[in-house]
Amino acid sequence: MENNSVSIDDSRDDPQIRFSDIFNVAVPFIDRHLKAGRSGKVAIRTTSGEEITYKELAASVNRCGNYFKSAGLSKGDRILMVVKDCPEFFYIFWGAIKVGIIPIPINTLLRAKDYHFIIDDSECTAILYSPEYKDEVEPAIKMAKNNPAHCICIQEENSDLAELIADHAPDLNAVETKADDDCFFLYSSGSTGNPKGAVHCHKDMVYTSRHYGVETLGIQEDDVVFSAAKLFFAYGHGNAMHFPLWVGASTILFDGRPTPDTIFDAIEKYKPTIYYGVPTLYGAQLLSMEQRTPDLSSVRICVSAGEALPPELFKRWKEKTGLIILDGIGSTEILHIFISNRSDDYCLGSSGRMVPGYDAKILGDDNNPVKQGDSGKLWIKGGSTARCYWKNPEKTAQTMQDGWLNTGDTYYQDENGYYHYCGRNDDMLKVGGIWCSPFEIEAKLMEHPNVLEAAVVGAPDDQNLIKPKAYLILKKAEDKSEELEKELLQLCKKGLAPYKYPRWFVFSDDFPRTATGKIQRFRLR
Ligand code: 3UK
Q1: Ligand 1 centroid to residue 334 C-alpha, Å
Q2: CA triplet 470, 472, 475: central angle to 5 degrees?
Q3: Please, is 418 exposed, middle or buried when counting C-beta atoms within 10 Å of its C-beta (0-12, 13-18, 19+)?
Q4: Whose CA is nearest to atom 8 of ligand 1?
Q5: Hey, whose CA ends up nearest to atom 10 of ligand 1?
Q6: pLDDT in tens, 134-171
Q7: In a domain, 68, yes or no
Q8: Which pTM does this prediction carry?
């Protein structure tokens, strides 16, 4: 096989991906497009009006790789990226990979103490950041024990990336790496404890792009993608960067805060064919559609991940837009989505069926597989799973065993093969000795027309027994009343197993959320 190439045997039902012995993933994702005749095609369009062709992308990636080399960085060094969604994100990420440096994109919504931890934990040699984040990043650099040789605010006078790389050559041969050499890390924030760096290899992006992007989603060269989930998030990373670059499509980058209006504006103006959102945003978008009728006619696929999509949101979105939302579950450790609904094969309220290339097992408390239909702990095996957590053998051993990854989720599989989410293992409730999924109760509450969002947690009653407690955000706060509480109670008592109705209702304006918008139920408890 030619160096840096991938071969896929399409004649089989489960196409096998093979990698050349020498394999640097920047070649198929960046360089390949020039030979394939896409030099003049737009790879990246920004909502501030920039257009970057595949040829310009490759040249900037190469200049950036050459710049890193000239700055004394070398193979195996790690660089942190606290970078907003902009073309420079691509130049740094791929330029680093091409010269064997390990880029580590991190959440741009973190605080100084988190950056401090990651600067020390990763033992990075450089940190590159957008000026928007300097107030949190710069104090973190000062606090850290590790002293990165290069701290660069990339869109500021004197350290603007475009200027730093301008004098470097636009050609660069990829450094020799292997498909299972370390390529990039993504830090995953657990609900407790410090973030852990999931170590991903060169082959991983190929695996997700092929099995999820192409075989499951059906992304094609003429697609234009737009992800409301940002590039630093593994979900956004695949959506807006890996998949379009794998097939030679175009991606739209928006560096601002995703709100219903900013997202609708971008969709109307840049006309994506694939739109990726998260449930919370779909919910807010639906609400805003009471005032605004956005033109979504360019969109053929809507995707949701990050947390389970409540069936009510799916139904309302379909009613309003005529489009279905494809829910799928992914994780930072697996890199992207491994169970998913499809346009021609979906089951409302489920995460869908297995993505090709992944296997699942659902284990009971005794660590044996449960009967089909019973819920248990979901473990996943597949070729894009992180090799380990960086410098954390204990967590690695707990989470990754014999190629299987413990997702931390409880699932059951129905008789048609669809997987149904029942909650995080740590969020599940036992009520009267029986497992009870907060998610099921939330979905029921959200059927009520006044309810925007619901979060259910376990709370002790006067006998110190755990019972469900519902926190609710109403569409209009003034709708709160005793009458409404009674209606909600009736709705739950009628539609759920008898032990499952919430014993308390608390109305709030917002919920505690992670930086990526997930509800932090443990903080409500
Ligand atoms: C939960 C879901 C129900 C689940 C992610 C798509 O979310 C992503 O990665 P994270 O590491 O979190 C993983 C955990 O989030 N989850 C995600 N999607 C769903 N639960 N239904 C869903 N559709 O607990 C999972 O273990 O932040 C999502 C692609 C790449 C990703 N990294």
Answers
A1: 10
A2: 160
A3: buried
A4: 331
A5: 331
A6: 999 999 999 999 999 999 999 998 899 999 999 999 99
A7: yes
A8: 0.87
